[in-house]
Amino acid sequence: MKLIQITLLLLCFLPGMGNAVEAFGSTPSEAAMCKVKMRDYDPSLVSNPKDVGHMHHYCDCLRFANRALRYPSSDPRFKHNIRESIDGCNYVIKHVSPSFYMLPSVYVARGRAYLLAKEGGKAAGDFMKALALDKNFVPAYIGLIKFYQKIDNKEEALKIAIEGLKLNPNSRPLKRRYLRLGGKEPFPGANVAQ
Predict the structure, then answer these.
(1) What pLDDT digit, counting tens, does each position of 73-129 carry?
(2) CA dihedral over 147, 151, 152, 155, signed as positive or negative
(3) C-alpha span between 60 and 31 (Å, rounded)
(4) How many other β-carbons are positioned within 10 Å of the β-carbon of residue 183?
(5) Residues 146-160: what's their mean pLDDT?
(6) Model pTM score
(7) If you ran DSSP here, which 8-state letter would residue 47 be given?
(8) How far apart, in Å, are the Cα atoms of 104 and each of 98, 121, 129, 165?
(9) Which CATH entry fits the domain spanning 49-134: 1.25.40, 1.10.3210, 1.10.10, 3.30.450?
(10) How far, CA to CA in Å, does 7 sit from each of 3, 4, 72, 81, 182?
(11) What's the pLDDT tens digit per position in 169-192?
């Protein structure tokens, strides 16, 4: 009798839990998204060919983060998909060479998942790790800007935009964020020799 009562309570208080676990496999649109994300893969940049064998977990990271966006953050399906996303990136980070050229992308993907999970400190840490690996990596600057905007620190977000533009003076996404944050033209880095 106790087991039936507990089951009924769970069903009442956790609506949608029965659907919390979606099919793990990629949908056709998710497979296409992964193919696009991997189109920049350049075998000449790979020092350890085994690294590439782990990148399907990077696609898991991306697709489960996208799946999570379908649900409110209180929904068990959101939480499940975010955890799968983070786990996919964790796998790649743990198994690839520290010099693998796609590692900044993996850190940014995990950082975005952490932002969705409202784990801002971890997100900021991942964006900083991506920049430590590639100081010109625009998606990491964008991630840090979003982090500072989420914690309502517009001043620091603007500093990050300026820092990013000094190294990437032609980046349209950084220029847009710089202007939205109150920056004025000419853009930082505009005088940097091309």
Answers:
(1) 999 999 999 999 999 999 999 999 998 888 999 999 999 999 999 999 999 999 999
(2) negative
(3) 10
(4) 16
(5) 97
(6) 0.81
(7) S
(8) 10, 17, 7, 18
(9) 1.25.40
(10) 6, 5, 23, 23, 53
(11) 999 999 999 999 999 999 998 764
Contact criterion met (CB below 8 Å) for 76 and 17:
yes
Residue that is written with structure tokens 């497979």 in the block: 31
3-state secondary structure of 183: coil
Give dist(CA 77, CA 71) in Å, integer.
7
CB neighbours of 112 closer than 8 A, spacing ≥ 6? 65, 123, 143
DSSP string, 134-179: -TT-HHHHHHHHHHHHHTT-HHHHHHHHHHHHHH-TT-HHHHHHHH
Query: For the chain, what is the mean pLDDT?
Result: 83
| pLDDT tens string 58-68 | 888 999 999 99
Each domain of the chain, given as residue ranges in start order, spans 49-134
> Which of 134, 93, 131 lies closest to 110, judged by CA?
93
What's the CA gap between 148 and 62, in Å, rounded?
Answer: 22
